[in-house]
Design a protein that fits this description.
alpha+beta; about 25% helix; Uridine Diphospho-n-acetylenolpyruvylglucosamine Reductase, domain 3; 5-stranded antiparallel sheet
Length: about 325
């Protein structure tokens, strides 16, 4: 395993920030990392696709880039299959693989940036589907011992854009493999109006998983800037969930407030709507700002530092708190 010193991470984070790693190494297999860890005394930092982090400083550690590959059907049943996927595989490429194989369950998660290994950490979700809906188990390497451990669904403590890997096990394991349950006879989920509108426009009455995926790609492409063109990490904030009582009070003040009732009894308010109402959509300050097409996205116009982007996020949080008395929580990991 080749270790590089003072290595730039600009190519490894979607904000395009030129932070440096004290040391850097690419991990190609679980065996490699297990062997290496037995004699390692360096502080470690795990890097996936770099699509959900904001680097505000250099990383004074050995950065391990997860590049463990492989997609394999490991169990087959009458109506479903279990698929094992390497943690270093690109998430969207895995979605496209599943569609080619006519296996459903993750088509609504098309075009989400990042790696498969990072997907359980965030419990990624979009358009009515979350990763936990298709999750079976994962294999992870304990960074303190080099030993492999298996985590099943209940072990992961999945929540809204949350899991045990963002809390108790944050920075303590490397996810080497994830096993998914995909369907041979998928139930098409077009519950979101935006997907329905595109299918109607294309006159598709009985959509396939590819039709749904294409619609999601079209929606995301129209709203979210390409990180290769304009640095960003997608949605910067979580959609806040508030009590019914608090929502009723807000609705009296803001009759046009956008909301979604949740099974839990709470109400979800789109963070993008809140931010837009505070006047941030399309507003640029220095080298950063909120995107013109989607206020939820903070962008790097080319020369921003991580600290500049963090300061902009803090201004947005403060303005939403002042106007709506709602505290926005970053979805992006600030490092």
């Amino acid at each position: 395993m080749k270790i590089l010193k003072d290595h730039s991470l600009q190519a490894y984070n979607t904000f395009g920030l030129d932070a440096k790693a004290k040391q850097f190494a690419a991990i190609k297999s679980a065996r490699t990392i297990s062997t290496f860890l037995k004699g390692n005394k360096e502080a470690l930092f795990i890097l996936g696709g770099g699509s959900n982090m904001l680097l505000t400083n250099n990383i004074e550690a050995l950065v391990l880039k997860n590049e463990i590959k492989g997609i394999e059907i490991i169990r087959e049943f009458k109506n479903q299959v279990h698929v094992a996927v390497g943690g270093g595989e690109n998430w969207h490429q895995f979605v496209l693989w599943a569609i080619r194989k006519k296996l459903g369950g993750i088509e609504n998660l098309s075009l989400i940036p990042g790696t498969v290994g990072a997907s359980p950490i965030q419990n990624i979700g979009a358009y009515g589907v979350e990763l936990k809906d298709v999750f079976v188990k994962l294999e992870a390497i304990d960074l303190s011992t080099g030993k492999k451990k298996v985590y099943f669904k209940n072990d992961c403590q999945f929540g809204y854009r949350d899991s045990i890997f963002k809390k108790k096990l944050k920075g303590k394991v490397l996810i080497s493999k994830v096993v998914f349950r995909l369907s041979k006879n998928p139930k098409i989920n077009v519950s979101y109006g935006a997907i329905q509108s595109i299918l109607k426009e294309k006159k598709i009455k009985k959509p396939s998983i590819k039709n749904v995926s294409d619609a999601v790609i079209q929606i995301r492409s129209s709203k979210l800037p390409d990180p290769k063109v304009l640095g960003n990490a997608g949605s910067f904030f979580k959609n806040p969930e508030i009590s019914k009582r608090k929502f009723k009070n807000l609705q009296q003040q803001f009759p046009n407030i956008v909301f979604y009732d949740l099974p839990s009894g709470k109400v979800k308010i789109p963070a993008g709507w809140l931010i837009e109402q505070c006047g941030w959509k399309g507003k640029k300050i220095g080298n950063t700002g909120s995107h013109a097409q989607q206020a939820l996205v903070i962008v790097n116009y080319g020369n921003a530092t991580g600290s500049e982007i963090k300061a902009h996020a803090e201004r947005v949080i403060e303005s939403v708190k002042n106007k709506f008395n709602i505290a926005l929580t970053p979805e992006v990991n600030i490092i």
